[in-house]
């Protein structure tokens, strides 16, 4: 039973939303999500899962006023297939690369039969079972559009989802990766002053997905993103997110290792100052034999910024030979910033290796002196040490060209 | 070149005097060695000269080519021509050795109003110098000092020195942790840089480094002061008799 204030907040929020028309597989998924949402209500600071991040700006009826992302395309120099989502509407041009079909939720939602029926809201619902994820439910119920990507071969060029425009969009993407198929997904920009995105990635046996996201550095960003991945046997999923600034960012990643010998990595590098509040919340479930998972999160905070990390590794009964690793670290550049970390391990198998660590520290004075004694001015020396600190997260990008590209981008951001 | 006058230094955090009136003049083109027992203040002297935090100069001063360096930031001292080869070179994960060196070289050139080296020019210079020190391409690419052996770290210090072309080089126990072959390699690197008016201050516990880097002048430091100065024979005396006799007679 949802308490009255929560119910009022939910009703106010729902009144401001319109559920898109349409029956088909999408209609059913939306109804289901709305039902689940009504049973739990919207998140509140008092909820344990939102203890370190106040969700009020994410659940309010209207978003705070905010500018648009005026950042140049960060993947400009990368040869990729671009899908633009402008003011919430996806479009793409030219011949698709081999190995992928692209559609949109708005156009294909009314079909009676569609592969997305087994993914849309399904991974989200599974991920919302151990922990309430109301904003993901809200997304499933009210998303106005999103991409349906079906990867059935080796896509030899990254697919770049580029957000531009403004408003308060709710977008929901589904990615289906067939057995032995692989793709690199890039995401950049942000779709509005406030946005709520869900991406569900279903990877069949032996499939692979690399996901690299650049959330930009707009100061007004209010973001709530969810990434749900379900991994089959011998499949691999890697996700990396870079963000700077932003007022409130909560990136949730829910990774479910369901087949033996699968590997899931999720990493993030974030830099912020002042009102910056950045929250990475991760839930990795090991449900099969001999799987490997890795979480690497680094935050650089100054002038009163706040960083949050909530990361969990759940090893189910029978998930023997699990290798789980988690590290969350913050670099505080002054005394006013705060880093809150909640690492959790829950293990029901007896033959596993799981480790976690969390550290908070200041810049290494000896290293700073070393660089300065070589003639590097203080600010540049600090920037190099910030890059050094973030490197372990950036190194999670498998592709060398993309990794170098992100490093160069980061260097440029630090210099600006 | 380097002139230190009546230098008194204490730790910033506590009331503990470390240097108690150091007087030392190093002329251009000369190699001076400072020897002394543990805790005599040798490393502190090198840190104070290069501008490390944590020390307070209570009296006296130091100048490089007539310029007061104690008021300068560490990077300004470097641009003025001072270089400290660290006893324990610092590891910097995630920053390529090459990136670090190019940043340093160009920062100094910029500070001196010289044009920055292009990536191509830089590469040409560093390849030649690295080869002399037996530093391979892989070591240049790897993160600064990460996973380097003791010898590799010290060679990397000398490579930095060769690239930055300082006027006044301070070597802080560069021989520590080195085997004979590595010490020879490091010494060869240093000797190659001798001349052209470049001065060296070599800090060491032992005489053996001075077999390879022949000093013009040897100073003995004890309890925060230079207690004895002489020629290379002074280093041999230390090797034979230890510091005890010397300090008593001083």
Automatic annotation (TrEMBL), chain A:
Boundaries of every SUF system FeS cluster assembly SufBD core domain copy: 172-389
Natural source organism: Jannaschia aquimarina
One of the protein's GO biological processes: iron-sulfur cluster assembly
PANTHER family attached to this UniProt entry: PROTEIN ABCI7, CHLOROPLASTIC
Gene: sufD
UniProt cross-references to InterPro entries, sorted A to Z: Fe-S_cluster_assembly_SufBD (IPR055346), SUF_FeS_clus_asmbl_SufBD_core (IPR000825), SUF_FeS_clus_asmbl_SufBD_sf (IPR037284)
Name listed for the protein in its UniProt record: SufD protein
Pfam families, sorted: SUFBD_core (PF01458)
Automatic annotation (TrEMBL), chain B:
Pfam families referenced in this protein's UniProt entry, alphabetically: ABC_tran
SUPFAM superfamilies hit by this protein: P-loop containing nucleoside triphosphate hydrolases (SSF52540)
InterPro entries assigned: AAA+_ATPase, ABC_transporter-like_ATP-bd, ABC_transporter-like_CS, FeS-cluster_ATPase_SufC, P-loop_NTPase
Domain ABC transporter: 2-248
Keyword entries, A-Z: ATP-binding, Nucleotide-binding
GO molecular function: ATP binding; ATP hydrolysis activity
NCBIfam families according to UniProt: sufC
Family in the record: Belongs to the ABC transporter superfamily. Ycf16 family.
Protein name: SufC protein
Organism: Jannaschia aquimarina
Gene: sufC
């Amino acid at each position: 039973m949802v308490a009255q204030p929560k119910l009022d907040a939910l009703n106010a929020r729902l009144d401001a939303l319109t559920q898109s028309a349409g029956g088909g597989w999408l209609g059913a998924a939306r109804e289901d999500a709305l039902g689940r949402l009504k049973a739990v209500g919207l998140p509140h600071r008092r909820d344990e899962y939102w203890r370190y991040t106040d969700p009020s700006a994410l659940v309010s009826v209207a978003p705070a006023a905010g500018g648009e992302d005026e950042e140049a395309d960060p993947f400009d120099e990368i040869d990729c297939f671009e899908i633009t989502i402008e003011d919430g509407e996806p479009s793409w041009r030219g011949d698709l690369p081999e190995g992928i079909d692209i559609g949109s939720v708005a156009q294909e939602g009314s079909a009676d039969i569609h592969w997305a029926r087994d993914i849309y809201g399904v991974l989200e619902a599974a991920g919302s079972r151990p922990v309430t994820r109301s904003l993901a439910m809200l997304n499933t119920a009210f998303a106005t559009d999103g991409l349906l990507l079906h990867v059935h071969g080796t896509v030899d060029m990254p697919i770049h989802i580029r957000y531009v425009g403004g408003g308060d969009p709710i977008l929901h993407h589904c990615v289906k990766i067939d057995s032995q198929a692989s793709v690199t997904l890039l995401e950049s920009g942000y779709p509005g002053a406030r946005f709520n995105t869900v991406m569900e990635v279903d990877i069949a046996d032996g499939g692979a997905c690399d996901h690299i996201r650049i959330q930009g550095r707009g100061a007004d960003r209010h973001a709530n993103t969810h990434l749900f991945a379900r991994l089959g046997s011998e499949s691999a999923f890697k996700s990396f997110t870079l963000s700077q600034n932003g007022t409130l960012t909560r990136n949730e990643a829910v990774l479910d290792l369901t087949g033996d010998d699968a590997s899931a990595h999720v990493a993030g590098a974030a830099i912020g100052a002042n009102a910056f509040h950045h929250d990475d919340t991760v839930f990795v479930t090991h449900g099969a034999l001999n799987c490997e998972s890795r979480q690497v999160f680094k935050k650089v905070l100054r002038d009163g910024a706040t960083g949050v990390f909530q990361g969990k590794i759940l090893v189910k009964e029978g998930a023997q030979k699990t290798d789980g690793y988690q590290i969350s670290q913050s670099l505080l550049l002054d005394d006013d910033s705060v880093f809150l970390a909640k690492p959790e391990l829950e293990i029901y198998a007896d033959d596993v290796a799981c480790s976690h660590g969390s550290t908070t520290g200041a810049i290494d004075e000896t290293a700073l002196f070393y660089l300065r004694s070589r003639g590097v001015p203080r600010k540049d020396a600090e920037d190099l040490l910030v890059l050094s600190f973030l490197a372990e997260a950036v190194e999670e990008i498998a592709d060398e060209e993309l990794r170098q590209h992100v490093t160069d981008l980061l260097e440029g951001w630090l210099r600006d | 070149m380097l002139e230190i006058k009546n230098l008194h230094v204490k730790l910033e955090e506590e009331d503990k005097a470390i240097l108690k009136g150091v007087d030392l003049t190093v002329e251009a083109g000369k190699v001076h060695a400072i020897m002394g027992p543990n805790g005599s203040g040798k490393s502190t002297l090198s840190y104070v000269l290069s501008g490390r935090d944590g020390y307070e100069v209570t009296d006296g001063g130091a100048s490089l080519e007539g310029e007061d360096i104690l008021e300068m930031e560490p990077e300004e001292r470097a641009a003025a021509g001072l270089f400290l080869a660290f006893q324990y070179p610092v590891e910097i994960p995630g920053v390529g050795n090459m990136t670090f060196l190019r940043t340093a070289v160009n920062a100094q050139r910029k500070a001196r109003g010289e044009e920055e080296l292009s990536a191509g020019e830089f590469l040409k210079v560093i390849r030649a110098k690295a080869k002399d020190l037996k530093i391979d391409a892989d070591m240049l690419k790897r993160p600064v000092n990460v996973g380097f052996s003791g010898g590799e770290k010290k060679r990397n210090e000398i490579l930095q020195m060769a690239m930055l072309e300082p006027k006044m080089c301070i070597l802080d126990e560069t021989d520590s942790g080195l085997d004979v072959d590595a010490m020879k390699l490091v010494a060869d690197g240093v000797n190659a840089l001798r001349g052209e008016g470049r001065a060296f201050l070599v800090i060491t516990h032992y005489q053996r480094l001075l077999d390879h880097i022949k000093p013009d002048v040897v100073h003995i430091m004890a309890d925060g002061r230079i207690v004895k100065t002489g020629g290379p024979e002074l280093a041999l005396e230390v090797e034979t008799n230890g510091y005890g006799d010397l300090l008593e007679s001083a």
